[in-house]
Automatic annotation (TrEMBL):
Family: Belongs to the glycogen phosphorylase family.
Cofactor: pyridoxal 5'-phosphate
EC numbers on record: 2.4.1.1
Superkingdom: Eukaryota
Keywords for this protein: Carbohydrate metabolism, Glycosyltransferase, Pyridoxal phosphate, Transferase
Catalytic reactions on record: [(1->4)-alpha-D-glucosyl](n) + phosphate = [(1->4)-alpha-D-glucosyl](n-1) + alpha-D-glucose 1-phosphate
Name used for this protein in its record: Alpha-1,4 glucan phosphorylase
Length: 829
């Protein structure tokens, strides 16, 4: 029986030891064995890529071992688990991160060098896992790393897109998108679980049927697709715990086409089966705007249905009463993308498990928490009712019922305030009726989290004001963080060594608050010297990359000024470029002698524009047009360079961030929910030039305004400035640089016209004009500070030393304790 089974597992657990050894000889044999038998190349002749593959398989074996142990341990302890539901993960490369978290990087480096290979060179053979767009997706990846490191019983669910985020190719300065079929060369970091599959159903009708003397609604679906699990083991750092990121792939189901096979349409039937695979084949490349497309809705439901079947199956393995569900299961909704999960839980509990509505509703209200990542209205998802009706008719009914109950209760609370009732309704009436996924998520979740303090304020006072007034207790925030494992240890090994040396410990890798211990050395001359050395080496590496990518030679003595992130009007890359034009214009109009006083700059911009986002694409083209002019102007020479880094992604970030002196986070105040790039720069000792927006406001609290270059309108000033409309004061310099673009100084005047129009007085929604003067002042202050290298180095050290709060470990601990109610479950040994 069960007791015997348990005793057997206990016995095996007692005997268990690390099976695979990690000394260099074992590792070498292991790599060669994989060259010969897994990669199927001769062990006497293989290239760097094949060496990478073999190496990756050797690491994979070690991941699998710990992953098995962790799963067995979780199963025995049966703790409450957190299920993290996200449609996007930007994991980047796995190799370096894995061996570092496993604690065997140096052993591998030794083993490889004896075979004549360099670890770093092989690591670069790996392509990024880019299953997401921007900050939201990278946040999921950082949080997964923290969940593993902090020993939480967590499981991340996602989709295994075959086409990841498109590759950005620049032709004549214009962005082109190329499909990124990333699985072309195999993926050693995943384990295909051919037996972990679930049917997912779509379309059909809802029928009424007799049940227990009454009536009930049943869904009779028409189409079935199979979901297959692909497990990606995620190792924690400094722990044996290795958790699962389970990504679903769609496969044709045999349940569909029994009939058509008999009609003689064999070929058509087989061809049709293949359309099932399209459900999980492509990542939508727009970050935030989602225009009610059927395929997108199919993806969302496919994801939700497979994940919930898996979660419920695991629950039922050990429990028989659904009233215990909230004690064992916490579901985290990463934005509204997975919010159909709410409806699906209701449907399964009522229609399949035969719970009453009120029992099911009780359970739902205890298990979901929701994090929102934006304040922009276009970021709030809406699903057209007619789409839902045809694809998921029973779900639509359930949404209507949830909404009916909600509105009835609401009327009792607030009376017949129809404006407010209609604002809060889950269903948006109008020509095209739609479902407001944010409203659904708020109504059904016990907690709504923002991603920074100011973001939560804006949610409470503007975006979700009505809901906040109704349920103030639901609204919280957990300021975002990033993982120091990837953003310092993996990407900046020399800084990592320096920190450990000066702190006398590596404990900061699991407890980033310890970085504050470096504050006392902020003026130490020896530290300054080592610090500058580390930074210079990183800048040289970046300079080399820039030269290969763009052909532009840059001097490492110049200030490296970086803005890398998705291209968006609210992030104001255009403001940056206009500032660069101003700088160029100043240099051109200077006496030759005065040019000696100019602080040399290398301006670096990188980021992708959504394929349909016209203005964002024009910003990319403008960057290239301006760069062409500046970089070829002998008057300017080394005083100013502008480079656009193509195809920005996680591994490009790992290279660029450690080499940056200054980084820009210059969104119009009140628009960046948090921003996480700034945290990565901070950890690497890069100074920030920023507006008081998102998490920057909290960074100021940690490192002090003196150690950064702040500018621009504050959150509360923005609406006041917008009110002024055409009466808004704009500096002459701003008008001048915009005119240069408009009049064709950089060519392409027709193409740039609409871009220029978007910042004309009266039209300048993101307030580039009114922030311009203060932006230039902040830039001038940065120049001044850079001239005094001791001062700069001190600010740089203090930036890094003040970054402890921005570890995703801190964020995840807050979620675990305050929102999810889960505890660590550490695998022994
Ligand atoms: C927010 F709404 C969205 C979105 O669709 N995609 C995305 O990347 C970002 N985000 C915010 O823009 C950032 O401010 C924030 O730091 C990040 O999500 C993570 O919370």
């Amino acid at each position: 029986g069960l007791g015997e089974e348990r005793a057997k597992v206990d016995r095996m657990f007692g005997l268990m030891d690390q099976f695979l050894k990690n000394d260099p000889i074992t590792l070498q044999n292991d790599i060669l064995r994989h060259v010969e038998y897994t990669v199927a190349r001769s062990r006497f002749s293989f290239d760097d890529f094949e060496a990478y593959q073999a190496l990756a398989h050797s690491v994979r074996d070690r991941l699998i071992e710990r992953w098995h142990d962790t799963q067995v341990h979780f199963k025995r302890k049966d703790p409450k688990r957190i299920y993290f539901l996200s449609l996007e993960y930007l994991m980047g490369r796995f190799l370096s991160n894995s061996v570092i978290n496993l604690g065997i990087r140096d052993q591998y480096a030794d083993a490889l060098s004896q075979l004549g290979f360099e670890f770093e060179v092989l690591a670069e053979q790996e392509g990024d896992a880019a299953l997401g767009n921007g900050g939201l997706a990278r946040l999921s990846a950082c949080q997964i790393d923290s969940l593993a490191t902090l020993d939480y019983p967590a499981l991340g669910y996602g989709l295994r897109y075959q086409y990841g985020l498109y590759r950005q190719v620049i032709l004549d300065g214009y962005q082109h998108e190329q499909p990124y079929y990333w699985l072309n060369f195999g993926n050693p970091w995943e384990i295909e679980r051919i037996h972990v599959t679930y049917p997912v159903k779509f379309y059909g009708t809802v029928e009424e049927e007799d049940f227990n003397g009454g009536k009930r609604q049943v869904w009779v679906p028409k189409e079935t697709v199979e979901a297959v699990a692909y497990d990606n083991p995620i190792p924690g750092y400094g722990t044996r715990n290795t958790i699962t990121l389970r990504l679903w792939a769609a496969k044709p189901s045999d349940q569909n086409d029994m009939e058509s096979y008999n009609t003689g349409d064999y070929i058509d039937a087989v061809v049709n089966r293949r359309t099932a695979e399209t459900i999980s084949s492509i990542l939508y490349p727009d970050d935030r705007s989602h225009q009610g497309k059927e395929l997108r809705l199919k993806q969302q439901y496919f994801f939700v249905s497979a994940s919930l079947q898996d979660i419920i199956r695991r629950f039922k393995d050990a429990h028989s009463n659904f009233d215990d569900f909230p004690e064992k299961v916490a579901l985290q909704l990463n934005d509204t993308h997975p919010s159909l999960a709410i409806v699906e839980v209701m449907r399964v509990l009522i229609d399949e498990e035969h719970l009453s509505w009120s029992r099911a509703w009780d359970i739902v209200c205890k298990i979901f928490s929701f994090t929102t990542h934006t304040v922009l209205p276009e970021g709030l998802e809406k699903i057209p009712v007619d789409l839902l009706e045809s694809l998921l008719p029973r779900h639509l009914q359930i949404i209507y019922d949830i909404n009916f109950n909600f509105i009835e209760k609401l009327k009792k609370r607030i009376g017949l305030d129809y404006d407010r009732l209609s604002r809060m309704s889950i269903v948006e009436e109008g020509a095209a009726k739609s479902i407001r996924m944010a409203n659904l998520s708020i109504v059904c979740s016990h907690t709504v989290n923002g991603v920074s303090k100011i973001h939560a304020e804006l949610l409470k006072t503007r975006v979700f004001k009505d809901f906040y007034e109704l349920w103030p207790h639901k609204f919280h925030y957990k300021t975002n963080g990033v993982t120091q494992r990837r953003w310092i240890v993996v990407s900046n090994p020399s800084l990592c060594a320096l920190i450990s040396k000066w702190l006398g410990t590596e404990a900061w890798i699991r407890n980033l608050d310890l970085l504050a211990g470096l504050q006392e050395y902020a003026t130490n001359a020896d530290l300054h010297q080592e610090w500058k050395m580390v930074r210079k080496v990183n800048k040289m590496r970046l300079a080399e990359y820039i030269e290969t990518m763009s052909g532009v030679k840059v001097s490492v003595d110049a200030m490296f000024d970086v803005q890398i992130k998705r291209i968006h009007e609210y992030k104001r890359q255009f403001l940056n470029i206009l500032g660069i034009i101003h700088r160029y214009d100043c240099i051109k109009n200077m006496e030759k002698n005065d040019r000696r006083n100019v602080v040399p700059r290398v301006c670096i911009i990188g980021g992708k524009a959504a394929p349909g986002y016209e203005i964002a694409k024009k910003i990319i083209k403008l960057c290239h047009a301006v760069a062409e002019k500046i970089n070829n102007d002998p008057d300017v020479d080394d005083l100013l360079k502008l480079v656009f880094i193509p195809d920005y992604n996680v591994s490009v970030a790992e290279l660029v961030i450690p080499g940056a002196d200054l980084s820009q986070h210059i969104s119009t105040a009140g628009h960046e929910a948090s921003g996480t790039g700034s945290m990565k720069f901070l950890m690497n000792g890069c100074l920030l030039l920023a507006t008081a927006d998102g998490s920057t406001i909290e960074i100021i609290e940690e490192i002090g305004a003196d150690n950064m270059f702040l500018f621009g309108a504050k959150v509360n000033e923005v609406p006041v400035l917008r009110e002024k409309g055409p009466a808004l004061k704009v500096p002459l310099q701003f008008a001048r640089v915009v005119r240069m673009v408009r009049n064709g100084y950089f060519g392409f005047e027709d193409y740039f016209k609409s871009l220029c129009d978007s910042v004309e007085v009266g039209n300048d929604f993101y307030l580039l004009g009114s922030d311009f003067e203060s932006y230039l002042e902040a830039q001038a202050a940065a120049d001044m500070a850079f001239v005094d290298q001791e001062k700069w180095t001190q600010m740089s050290i203090l930036s890094m030393a003040g970054s402890g709060r921005f570890s995703s470990d801190r964020t995840i601990e807050e979620y675990a304790e305050k929102t999810w109610g889960i505890e660590p479950c550490r695998c022994p040994f």
